[in-house]
From TrEMBL:
Keyword Metal-binding among record annotations: no
CDD domains: WHTH_GntR
Protein name (database record): GntR family transcriptional regulator
HTH gntR-type domain location: 10-78
Record bears the keyword Nuclease: no
Lineage, top ranks: Bacteria, Bacillati, Actinomycetota, Actinomycetes, Micrococcales
Record keywords: DNA-binding, Transcription, Transcription regulation
């Protein structure tokens, strides 16, 4: 599920957070999936419990997971809401560039530049 690159300049908690967030975005971890316990994931990855706990806290702060007490930590529906918000923003952008007479190629170049 996750691997930690000890030689990476990216801190381990960020590697865990980023990997889980990406797996949620690409639906490898669908809404409702129960994540491993902090202790279990830390043991699996060979890292400190606090490192995994920090990654989970940051995912929860971003609304990507929800902790249900002793039941565990689950992928929340916020991931779907993020995609919905992005789709709405994309539709609004498309309407705006059409109204301005900007063609598809140029509009996509503008988006690509903004994402850099």
């Amino acid at each position: 599920m996750i691997s930690i690159d000890a030689d990476s300049p990216v801190p381990p908690f960020e590697q865990v957070r980023t990997t889980l967030a990406q797996q949620m975005a690409d639906r490898t971890l669908p809404v409702g999936t129960r994540l491993p316990t902090v202790r279990a994931l830390a043991a699996e990855l060979g890292i400190a419990v606090n490192t995994v706990a920090r990654a989970y806290r940051e995912l929860e702060a971003a609304g990507l997971v929800e902790t249900r007490g002793r039941a565990g930590t689950f992928v929340s529906a916020a991931g779907d809401q993020r995609l919905s918000l992005a789709q709405t923003a994309a539709s609004t952008y498309a309407e705006t560039v059409r109204a301005l007479g900007i063609g598809r190629t140029e509009a996509l170049e503008i988006v690509a530049a903004a994402l850099r």
